[in-house]
Design a protein that fits this description.
Blueprint: H1 16-27, H2 32-44, E1 46-52, E2 55-60, E3 67-70, H3 71-79, H4 83-86, H5 111-127, H6 130-140, H7 152-160, H8 164-184, H9 205-217, H10 224-228, H11 232-251
Antiparallel strand pairs: 1-2, 2-3
Amino acid sequence: MKVELTVPRSYAELTEKQLRYIASLQLAGSTAEKIWVKCFIRFSGIRPVWGIGDTYFFDKKKVKGYFCLGLEDITYFARKMEWITKNHIGIQPVKCGKYKPVDKWLRDTTFIQYVDAENYYQAYIHTKNVDFLYKMMAVLYQPAARYNDLKVNALSRYFKRRGEVEKQMAMMWMVGVKSYFSKKFTYLFARESGAEDDETTFPDMAEIINNQFRILTSGDITKRMQVLAANTIDALSELNEKCREYEQLKKQ
């Protein structure tokens, strides 16, 4: 009997229901290996019936009778799900209550909105103060065309009351965005490429942001508001190009 099992290959292929399931497993403190196994079983549409030793019997819709998988088979297939805990790129953010998220790659945001989101993200990572997570959500769930940083504190109280799964998904989304940016803007995020954020050292975000503004304004403070209103991707692209030129100069 031939049984075909199909599972998603990345976060970009997940449904909202599947994304919520992964977030709930992470919140429950499941190990990476358990998450892979549970997601393989859930997403492939199979249901465990019973087990004998290292052999497990499953059923599946539209498949007559039962079929078996050995422990080695399950481990092999579960390994195909490693991306769940290792690569969050491609998450489609979901509506949170009455608020809709900005574009999943922040393509519709201004530079100030990205800077604020990054600032609160770093603050949450390094202090574990959940108030910063709520503020990050208050930034990312404001309409990009009408973003107002003065509304962040008030909005954060709304997101504080939302479910833990929604908060976890927002954090996973931001992790994926940062991973995507580190691959897209390799010169700008060279230190972050291939590694998770270092939680042992709190970065001086004020210095980092001011340096970015100095680069984009060429030291002309009258251009600051113009930079703040620039499109996020355009601003990061320019910063990346400046970093590339600097690296070339160093080599010469």
